[in-house]
Design a protein that fits this description.
The protein is α/β, with parallel strands linked by helices. The chain is built from 17 helices and 18 strands. The radius of gyration is 26 Å and the shape is globular.
Length: about 550
């Protein structure tokens, strides 16, 4: 077994070579000195595997283990003792499975508007995820120690940077999603607005007022951050979904490792760049990658996971997260109940909402439910409105080949006997993109695939009900329960129906209209948790009750 002095010397040499630095004092705080940032950790872990045959696992990721040369040497010594004598030389060592291939081949990303390659991006593996989590862990205490005023000031600066560089963000968002410029610009604006909202919300104070709830005692509640939050967001709103999650998490005093979808890492990388300047190093980091990257993040040394994505993905996160805090926003498949006295612009409003972002919104209307007396009128109105919305002019393509194939598969399996298909109008040179037309599917069974499954595309199904009770039963008849809308003129009817719909968010005579002040979240297969509003802050905090004896006993 190596003597500590010899091992310390070897670790010092390893650090000098891996980090390209002069020999540091054995007691120097390498993290505070800025030598071990996310890239530094990545190089260190790779060098340790090569030199000592030691793979760093999620269970090892306390930054204190790597803060000084002496602590790193002690960590190596302990690992070698666990592994046995054969691990003392690199030649005899076999890295553990958890440390195998840190980085996969770069992923080829395509432009959804053309189907052609647009860039390649490195896929984060074990080392990259571990390094990012370790850096965020090292920064967590400092970020949490800032006063609300200071955190707010830094979040406002990040919002300013997003706004100042909005053209860059819009271009990056379009590249990954194919959204029209107006949609992308609106979402960049919403991102900045949300960051500003949470900069103010974190200073409001939401605890029960201090008071003498027990004789001779004074009590109050402290809201404390969870620590490091792993955030995983989807490809449909890469920047906006990131803002929904990182805004309250950062405001609450947590540091964040953000994992964007494989196909849309562009704006997340910009956010990490600007966050380093506005918030400080290690407060918000991005790890681009695929599903395996996300699983590595969930299983790493994070204190909580915020996941927005599919139901299948959500179940996988829950299974891997164990007892740690999890916030889920999953699928929608949302109903819209249209009554006979609905406003004249109802069909236009539903089609506009169903085609926004090419229908790739969890809260988009997907299933229109009418009474029988206004069924045919509604089908005709929706068909007319959809015919005026052209993919390629009024909305963008589907995000990727898998999503386009899902659309094709569900539409092909549908038993709808009435189908209205809108025209396609891709711009010249973009004919090979993932363009899919808007569709109205009617006269179909209640168990039709287009009804039961979330198409996540510009598709509306139409069903008829005999009365309000059956309309509610149809609306609540799928596992998802995220959002819904009711369209009608009588306040008593629409309010009654809104109350009966099983959804976390219900609109009346409108759909898909949201703002930072109002909470958004689902039930059932749509997950649990809250995005936006001051309520979202509690997703990323934990309360601590403090009771003090005062006066004489």
């Amino acid at each position: 077994m190596n003597e500590p002095s010899s091992l310390t010397s070897r670790v010092t040499d390893l650090l000098c070579e891996a980090l390209q630095i002069d020999p540091p004092p054995a007691e120097m705080d390498l993290i505070a000195a800025g030598l071990l940032d996310s890239i530094g950790f990545m190089h260190l872990f790779a060098a340790m595997e090569t030199e000592f045959g030691i793979g760093v696992t999620a269970a090892d990721l306390s930054p204190d283990r790597f803060r000084t040369v002496e602590r790193i040497a002690a960590f190596v010594s302990a690992k070698q003792e666990q592994a046995g004598p054969e691990a003392e030389s690199a030649e005899a060592a076999t890295p553990p499975a958890a440390a195998a291939p840190a980085s996969a081949e770069p992923a080829v990303l395509t432009d959804p508007r053309t189907g052609r390659e647009r860039r390649r991006v490195a896929v984060s593996g074990v080392r990259e995820v571990a390094a990012a989590v370790a850096e965020c862990r090292a920064a967590a205490a400092g970020w949490a120690a800032h006063t609300p005023r200071e955190r707010a000031r830094r979040l406002l600066r990040l919002a300013d940077l997003v706004e100042e560089r909005s053209a860059e963000y819009v271009a990056a968002e379009q590249a990954g999603t194919g959204k029209p410029a107006a949609e992308a610009a609106g979402e960049v604006e919403q991102c900045a607005d949300l960051l500003r909202f949470y900069a103010g919300a974190l200073r409001t104070g939401r605890s029960p007022a201090p008071g003498g709830f027990l004789p001779g005692r004074e009590s109050w509640v402290r809201w404390e951050p969870l620590g490091v939050v792993g955030v995983i967001v989807p490809w449909n709103y890469p920047l906006m979904m990131a803002a929904w999650r990182i805004g309250p998490a950062l405001a609450a005093g947590n540091t964040v490792v953000l994992k964007p979808a494989l196909t849309t890492p562009d704006t997340a990388l910009l956010l990490a760049r600007d966050a380093a300047a506005a918030l400080g190093p290690g407060v918000l980091l991005t790890v681009p990658g695929d599903r395996d990257t996300g699983r590595l993040l969930v299983e790493s040394d994070v204190d909580a996971v915020a996941f927005t994505g599919s139901e299948t993905g959500g179940r996988d996160v829950v299974a891997r997260a164990g007892l740690r805090r999890v916030s889920l926003e999953l699928g929608g498949n949302c109903p819209a109940v249209v009554l006979p006295d609905a406003p004249p612009d109802t069909c236009q409003g539903l089609v506009a909402a169903a085609t926004y972002n090419a229908g790739q919104s969890c809260a988009s209307p997907a299933r229109v439910i009418t009474l029988r007396e206004n069924y045919e009128q509604t089908v005709e109105g929706l068909a007319k409105a959809m015919a005026e919305r052209r993919a390629g002019v009024d909305f963008g393509p589907l995000n990727n080949a898998d999503q386009a194939a899902r659309y094709d598969r569900i539409v092909a399996r549908s038993a709808a006997r009435v189908e209205h298909v809108a025209p396609l109008a891709p711009p010249p040179g973009e004919e090979d993109g993932h363009w899919r037309p808007g569709r109205i599917l009617a006269d179909l069974p209640a168990d039709d695939p287009a009804v039961r499954e979330e198409v996540f595309a510009p598709v509306l199904t139409v069903q008829a009900a005999d009365d309000h009770a059956e309309a509610v039963a149809l609306a609540n008849g799928v596992p998802q329960a995220l959002a819904a809308s009711v369209w009608g003129a009588r306040a008593d009817e629409v309010l009654d129906l809104a109350g009966q719909l099983d959804a976390g968010e219900v609109w009346i005579n409108c759909h898909l209209e949201q703002t930072a002040e109002l909470p958004h979240g689902g039930r059932g297969a749509s997950g649990h948790g809250t995005d936006m509003s001051v309520l979202a802050l509690t997703e990323y905090q934990r309360p601590k009750t403090v009771t003090a004896r005062v006066g004489r006993s």
